[in-house]
Amino acid sequence: MAEQPAQLTLMAINADEREVQVEGEVQASPSPSPLKRKRTSGRRKLPLEKIEKLNARQVCFSKRRKGLFHKAYEISVLCGAHVEVLAFSSAGNPFSCAYPSNSPSLFAKVIGLPSEQSLPELISNSQTALSQQLSELTARLEAGKKKKEALQATLKRIEDIRSADVSKMEPAELEALKKSLEQVRAAMGLSQ
């Protein structure tokens, strides 16, 4: 017995919002039943966990990076937002994109970098600060040199005093020695 084609009646609404009835015949297709179909992974939800194999992780990153950047572009277009994405691969290579591309860098705003308009002012301020720091260091160096000379003179006086034979000195020489010792004591910051 021959199989008769099934009748199909469709109701549709056309552009004028009027119902239109369409009639036709439906051919039976030789598709397998739902129980006999091959099961595939399809779009199943994957658990969110780190991929342990380094090679598989690198492949996954390279495949998904394009999708990530595309989503950033979509958000930028649909919402009018300024979007920047910075991703580092497991090898440490940076990948970035910005939408719209002519917008000022959001990363610069986040980490506090100056805008391009204030860059000459920043350079001028840093030059002033550096020259001031240089003059302070030069003054400290000169003070250190003077202190070194004074300490060397004091050391020479101490050596002269140690080498002098006090028992053979005249009273005037002893008085000069006493003054030298007081000067050494004052230079070293010692009190009596």
TrEMBL record:
GO cellular component, one term: nucleus
Coiled-coil ranges per UniProt: 134-161
Protein name (record): Agamous-like MADS-box protein AGL62
Pfam family, one: SRF-TF
Region called Disordered, residue ranges: 21-44
SMART domains, sorted: MADS (SM00432)
Location in or out of the cell: Nucleus
Main localisation: nucleus
UniProt keyword DNA-binding present: yes
Keyword Nucleus: yes
